[in-house]
């Protein structure tokens, strides 16, 4: 372990939320983590866009979840979201509500109110060492450098607005092929974005289609500041050994809708537990993580098979439910083997000659 057991020094490549989670937990347990970040600041690669921390994939309450890693969630600038609108082809906008938050909305980036910067501040207060603008050494114990592959893409606009707080989810091939689009307005700041996968057909002007749609229903979208990012839908599995790959570097994300913050942070926690010698706990963490991401991969596969009309049917059922949060939780609680058998049987039937 490159001397970790002797001097308790741990090298971490990458200062994203997974790397920060590992570093903070290690520091609070008497180790000396050093985070190597190629950028000049934590969160520099993000754009101040909104992102959600979901409350349906993992059951742990948000304050307790952050507390497991030694973070204080009350110091994180966030907005609990218990209602949002869904727009689809065959329906007028439908309101989805629940007494408990579906997710907590945060901003990603390097400014004082952004999640990345706030986690960095808590790490610094704990004594974690950061080395900015430096290439990580070859003997890193944890790799948290993000993904090098690009299968999914996000295009968006951040802008200021006088519109009241509101959240919209927009579904349809015109707006986000095999994906989804969203408009988030909170406290005078807004993000309009489309998350999509490239298709074999000619690519649509998705972000402008989204903009035109929202303006057609009376929501003005100014020019704002454009941004773009990418993600991977690969599903790598391998032995948990050094160097531990966490976050997107290890494929730890929600493949269905991209709610990857919890998965990234939990993977960072699992790697730290291995280094701390708490192997039984670490193995359990990765067992749960791998089960959830397998299910999210299957959910993504099924989601991509839906046409616009089928999406509308599902949205309609969700809006009529008394407990839509439990429905969302339920799609991460399937028996993996049974659902894989169902998919194989379905495709065997579909390809049988008539």
Automatic annotation (TrEMBL):
Keyword entries, A-Z: Membrane, Transmembrane, Transmembrane helix
Coiled-coil stretches noted in the UniProt entry, renumbered to this chain: none
Residue ranges of the TM segments: 255-277
UniProt name for this protein: Amine oxidase domain-containing protein
Organism phylogeny: unclassified sequences, metagenomes, ecological metagenomes
């Amino acid at each position: 372990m490159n001397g970790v057991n002797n001097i308790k020094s741990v090298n971490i490549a990458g200062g994203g939320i997974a790397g920060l989670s590992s570093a903070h937990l290690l520091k609070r347990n008497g180790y000396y983590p050093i985070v190597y970040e190629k950028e000049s600041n934590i969160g520099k690669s993000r754009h101040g866009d909104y992102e959600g921390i979901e409350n349906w994939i993992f059951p742990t309450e948000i304050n307790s979840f952050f507390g497991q890693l030694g973070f204080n969630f009350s110091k994180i600038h966030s907005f609990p979201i218990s209602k949002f609108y869904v727009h689809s082809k065959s329906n007028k906008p439908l309101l989805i509500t629940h007494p408990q938050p579906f997710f907590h909305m945060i901003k990603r980036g390097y400014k004082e109110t952004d999640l990345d910067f706030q986690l960095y501040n808590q790490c610094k207060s704990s004594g974690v060492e950061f080395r900015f603008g430096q290439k990580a050494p070859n003997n890193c114990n944890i790799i948290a450098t993000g993904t090098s592959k690009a299968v999914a893409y996000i295009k968006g606009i951040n802008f200021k607005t006088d519109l009241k707080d509101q959240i919209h989810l927009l579904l349809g091939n015109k707006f986000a092929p095999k994906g989804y689009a969203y408009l988030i307005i909170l406290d005078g700041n807004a993000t309009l974005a489309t998350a999509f996968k490239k298709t074999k057909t000619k690519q649509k002007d998705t972000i402008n289609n989204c903009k035109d749609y929202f303006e057609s229903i009376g929501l003005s979208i100014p020019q704002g500041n454009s941004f773009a990012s990418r993600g991977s839908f690969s599903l790598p599995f391998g032995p948990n050994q050094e160097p531990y790959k966490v976050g997107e570097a290890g494929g730890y994300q929600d493949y269905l809708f991209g709610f990857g913050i919890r998965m990234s942070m939990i993977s960072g926690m699992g790697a730290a537990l291995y280094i701390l010698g708490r192997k039984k706990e670490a193995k359990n963490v990765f067992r749960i993580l791998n089960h959830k991401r397998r299910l999210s991969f299957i959910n993504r596969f099924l989601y991509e098979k839906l046409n616009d009309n089928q999406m509308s049917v599902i949205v309609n059922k969700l809006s009529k439910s008394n407990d839509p949060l439990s429905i969302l939780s339920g799609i991460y609680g399937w028996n993996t083997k049974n659902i894989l058998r169902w998919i194989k049987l379905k495709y065997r039937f579909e390809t049988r000659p008539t």
